Every structure is written in C-alpha cells, then in structure tokens.
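Researcher: Next entry in the queue.
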Amino acid sequence: MYHIHGRKLWLFWPATTRNIRILLERELREGNPIELPEAIHVLEELDVLLLEDTQEAFYLPAGMIHAVISFMTCSHAGVYVWAINEYLIAQDLVNYHLFFPSLLCPTVSSGKT
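Model: Structure for this entry, 113 residues:
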C-alpha cells in the first residue's frame, strides 16, 4: 500500500484460524460483518499503524484482515502482486509514485487540501 495524503489509522489482524472462524461465524449466523469495536476486542494479535500526512509505503499481505479510520480526507493506492516475478514491477510503480507524488495527488506537492 502507498499512503499518499492525510491522517489514517490502520488496524491489522493476521488471518489465523481463530480470527477467520470468528469472522465467518459472525457473518453466517447474524448475516452482517463484525463491527470495529467488537473486532478490536475479540480478534487476536491486533497491530496498528498511524500514518500522518507523510508519504509512506508498506506491504499488506494477502488475506490480512484490516480496517482503517481516516481522520481527514485521505488517499492511498495499492498494487496487487500475484506472483513473485511481478514484485519488482510493483516495487517500481510504488517508487515512481513516491518520486512523483504530484502525478497521483496534485494537492500533496502544493500543500493544498
């Protein structure tokens, strides 16, 4: 993932057997997804990442359970990597946008919101 602009809190949980079971049971029994406050309390191994108004890139593994809280207008982008030979292409795309952020979000370089 590439964080472009804004203040955003990312919450991550690994796709453990227990976490998947909780999510599926909730969805199948009650017919609606788990709410964030409940997920924070019942899912295991919560990890958080607060991104301020800086440009950063991070790896979000396939299957990672995640939620975000945006504290202002935010933008991010992602590149799917389906095979290891595509990783270098994805890395080049992320590096390109880190070097030329105004192409993705013109207000980032000008300081406008």
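Model: The helical segments are 17-30, 36-42, 87-99, 101-104, 106-110.
Researcher: Noted, moving on.
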